[in-house]
Design goal:
15 helices; D-Amino Acid Oxidase, Chain A, domain 2; alpha/beta; 21 strands; globular; 9-stranded mixed sheet; FAD/NAD(P)-binding domain
């Protein structure tokens, strides 16, 4: 698999721009293929980053990348038990599944014996094989250190200020500024791993077009300490959790509100990642950067239970404040050009609902590494690059509609649950195909025509029911979704006897 590649100082096969987990893993995979690689980072580790919730799909891809590219430490952080055994000092959190709690304005949280306002879906059978919440400051720093250990040249506090690609030359000439010290490098390929549209927009003349998205959201977020747990609150209010499949604080915790939803992800040291994601589809959530703290407080004041557990929280040292994202959705008009390519998490993003971000990023990295497994001389008009882009955008469209459905249905808990199940059906189909060695072509089974036809076909009905807020029609649609997912429903989703508590939906990942 490995190839010898002559490396002279300052000249590389690949220059990876950005040293988040995506940039580091990509660089290491390319290095293990025998290419010369450098990573250029304009900041310095450890630094704050958002996007922390892993999933079974992400775990599976990490394990395969570990085996395919001889990167054993990726396998060792692919599950909670192995992580704690091998790297206990790299901070993470236990994530047993996905939890959703519906809140009403001006009312404390309440539910019933059928858990009408709750949905807990296990993603693992035990803590040992559980997913994780990544404390990105630690994880990103850990991975770039591993990259350096592999012999990858790493330049931090280094900003690219000029890129030139001469017509008679196949190399990029890279001019950088390292704390006012100008340095020059060469590379045959630029990999944009920045996780932003800015770099490609500046140097490759790409544009960010969000007009096709069905999802429209913005976020206000930070890290907090001294925040009471949700399970403690439920116990204080004597809301029974005896039949919960896991502690909801050990999960990707979604609190559904009229304005959108709030995420809560906990780490082992008690730190909490918390963000308020606001639905902007009807132009209702326009937030000026100067008043996003006011918006945060105003919305929390409408939800007594959420206000109760967050009121004691103080900002963690990083970032030490609330951050306002602007619109979350992103889609570059192209993901590649002559001598450059953008990773998934750079070229496009939808929303943090359901924690698709890390897995989608890893899926794209896996595809890119396969692209360069046998050759480096891929040209701009090469069919392989065109297919790479087409697949990415098709996956993006599918993620978008699955997430948009949850926004469109959050007014009705039963219909919301049905919409969420469409996402879980897609993930389970993907996981089962992958574990059977079938190597799914597209993330979340977006290449399964029957499944995608089902999801896209249901969307107009969801919109229509949302417009009228007709409870009877909503229930009829729940019944329809339950019936239509039967051919794909191999793990017992939408089973009324489970009362929204799903203990055994995880595929067998004991490999």
């Amino acid at each position: 698999m490995k190839r010898n590649s002559e490396h002279k100082g300052g000249s590389y096969d690949f220059a990876v721009i950005g040293s988040g987990f995506g940039g580091s893993i990509t660089a290491m995979g390319l290095k293990q293929l025998g290419y010369s690689v450098c990573v250029i980072e304009k900041n310095r580790h450890p630094r704050f980053a958002i996007g922390e919730s892993s999933t079974p799909i992400a775990d599976m891809i990490l394990r395969d990348l570990a085996d395919d590219y001889d990167l054993p430490f990726l396998k060792q952080i692919s599950r909670y038990g192995e992580w704690q055994k091998n790297y206990p000092d790299v901070k993470c959190g236990l994530k047993r599944g996905f939890s959703y709690f519906h809140h009403q304005k001006e009312k404390s949280f309440e539910t019933d014996p059928f858990h009408k306002n709750e949905l807990l879906v296990a993603a693992s059978l035990d803590n040992e094989n559980s997913d994780t919440n990544w404390f990105r400051s630690d994880v990103d720093y850990f991975l770039i250190q591993k990259a350096v250990d592999l012999g990858i040249d790493y330049f931090e506090k280094t900003e690219v200020i000029q890129l030139d690609r001469r017509a008679d030359h196949n190399d990029w000439f890279i001019k950088t500024d390292t704390e006012k010290l100008i340095k020059n490098y060469k590379a045959k390929w630029i990999i944009d791993a920045t996780g932003s549209a800015d770099f490609s927009g500046k140097f490759f003349d790409t544009s960010n077009n969000v007009s096709d998205f069905k999802t429209n959201s913005v976020a206000i977020y930070s890290h907090f300490k001294v925040v009471s747990s949700w399970s403690t609150y439920l116990q204080e209010k004597k809301i029974s959790t005896s039949d919960y499949p896991y502690n909801p604080d050990d999960s990707a915790l979604h609190h559904i509100i009229d304005e959108g939803w709030i995420w809560m992800l906990r780490f082992n040291d008690g730190l909490l990642s918390c963000g308020m994601v606001l639905d902007g589809s009807k132009g209702e959530q326009k937030i000026d950067k100067k008043d996003h703290r006011v918006v945060w407080n105003q919305i929390l004041n409408h939800y007594p239970s959420l206000h109760h557990i967050l009121q004691s929280g103080v900002y963690a040292n990083q970032p030490g404040r609330l951050i306002h994202s602007g619109r979350l959705q992103r889609k570059l008009n192209r993901t590649f050009g002559e001598g450059w390519i953008a990773l998934n998490h750079t070229s496009c993003f939808v929303d943090p609902m359901h924690s698709t971000g890390i897995a989608f990023a890893l899926s794209g990295i896996e595809r890119l590494l396969k692209l360069f497994r046998s050759r480096i001389d891929i040209k701009n008009d090469d069919n392989a690059l065109i297919k790479f882009q087409d697949k990415t955008f098709k996956e993006l469209e599918f993620i978008d509609i699955l997430i948009s459905m949850t926004y469109r249905t959050r007014w009705n808990p039963e219909l919301f649950t049905a919409a969420v199940m469409l996402y879980f059906v897609s993930t389970v189909q993907y996981e089962q195909r992958r574990i059977q060695g079938l190597d799914p072509d597209l993330f979340l089974s977006a290449d399964d025509q029957k499944l995608t036809d089902l999801v896209f076909g249901l969307y107009p009905a969801i919109i229509k029911v949302e417009e009228n807020k007709n409870v009877k029609k909503a229930w009829e649609l729940v019944t329809e979704i339950t019936k239509k997912i039967e051919p794909f429903n191999t793990v017992g989703l939408m089973d009324a006897s489970k009362r929204n508590m799903y203990r055994h939906t995880a595929v067998n990942l004991h490999l």
